[in-house]
Design a protein that fits this description.
228 residues; Rossmann fold; globular; alpha/beta; 8-stranded mixed sheet; 25% strand; 7 helices; 37% helix
């Protein structure tokens, strides 16, 4: 695997990890939590590259990272939606332009704030073929739902006070209503950010393991190029 930090695309940048093998690959764009592009997101990026994907984590905060919840909240509040969407679209453009990427095999994944941003990108980027949303803010507006081209995977916590299970069920129902393929799972007893082991109070090892298996199988079916 080869890794390049601070890969530039337009006004944005990110952390890139790519397999060292020849040939076209599927690509995965990663959208970070409200902490910023931290070590955990880099680890997830490396992990996808080890599985054979060209993986790119976009830095929506443009260099800012924190482990302080108050500062993370301020960074998230200060992130303009239009700039975030433009940066994510630039990341897709960059991946699609790479000689080692098949532009018809690009997916996105996000956690927490990044889950909501991943869904926003999915609504506005028809080139995506797969979108994995982990406890991110949802949309139910038919005008947005009907724009989705990608297949959807969602992992949510039943005890997540920020994203109630009823909202998740409504999102799944709307996907079904408008003929969008969605695989939505709500984990009993799990709260927000249950996949990140750095979340000492909310990490749920059993739910995290199951969600990761679902994510890996989802991208394997929809993004990975056979024999790549």
């Amino acid at each position: 695997m080869s890794a390049v930090t601070n890969t530039k695309f337009g006004d944005a940048s990110g952390y890139l990890a790519a397999p060292g093998t020849p040939g076209k690959k599927g690509a995965i764009l990663l959208i970070h939590e409200w902490w910023g592009l931290d070590d955990w997101i880099r680890q997830q990026t490396d992990r996808f590259a080890q599985q054979g994907y060209v993986a790119l984590a976009v830095d929506l905060y443009r260099g800012r990272v924190t482990n302080n919840p108050d500062e993370a909240h301020e960074l998230m509040r200060g992130l303009p939606d239009d700039r975030a969407l433009a940066d994510m679209k630039a990341a897709v453009d960059y991946l699609a332009s790479r000689p080692d990427v098949d532009p018809k095999h690009i997916g996105v994944i996000g956690w927490c704030m990044g889950g909501g941003k991943a869904l926003s990108l999915t609504v506005n980027e028809p080139r995506l073929v797969a979108s994995a949303i982990n406890y991110g803010a949802l949309v139910t507006d038919p005008a947005a739902i009907t724009k989705i081209n990608a297949k959807i995977l969602g992992n949510f916590g039943e005890a997540d006070r920020g994203i109630p299970a009823e909202d998740v069920k409504k999102f799944g129902a709307e996907l079904t209503k408008y003929g969008k393929l969605g695989d939505i799972k709500i984990y009993p007893g799990a709260g927000h950010a249950f996949m990140n082991p750095n979340n000492k109070q909310g990490y749920n090892a059993a739910a995290a393991e199951d969600a990761q298996k679902r994510i890996d199988a989802f991208f394997d079916r929809n993004v990975k190029i056979p024999n790549s």
